Predict the 3D structure of the following.
Amino acid sequence: MVAPSAHDRGLVLLRDGQRCVACHTRTSPLEMQHRQAVGAGGSKVRPRPHELATACCTCNRRFESDLQTEALALGWKVRRWVKDAGEVPMFNRPRAVWGRLTREGGVVLLRPDDAIARMREVYGPDWDRWAAESRISLPTTERNSL
């Protein structure tokens, strides 16, 4: 598997506030979470910032087990069949904001209602099931700062 470039890794860390997008930690070793599975043996294509999220080593492992449903509902993971990971908004829990990740390493903030509507466009009723199963508390007010 090809690792992200040092430049792109720096952009992702900066975008995500140098914290795990799930648990807020910055003391645990931080890793680049591939939002979309790259398959056994990995990919020979270097991942771009919109395809990555900052996760501590614990949460990164849990995204594949007990946090998988929540990770899908909040955009930390993206189903393999989605053509562009940038289509799927991501929730940054430490900052309590939804955003559409850009290829350049930035984020376009979304109102929660717009992000949820987008998740429903991409995933259909699966997203509502994931949100219900994971019992996530979704913000209902817009936050302006990232």
Q: What stands out?
A: DSSP finds five helices and five strands in the chain.
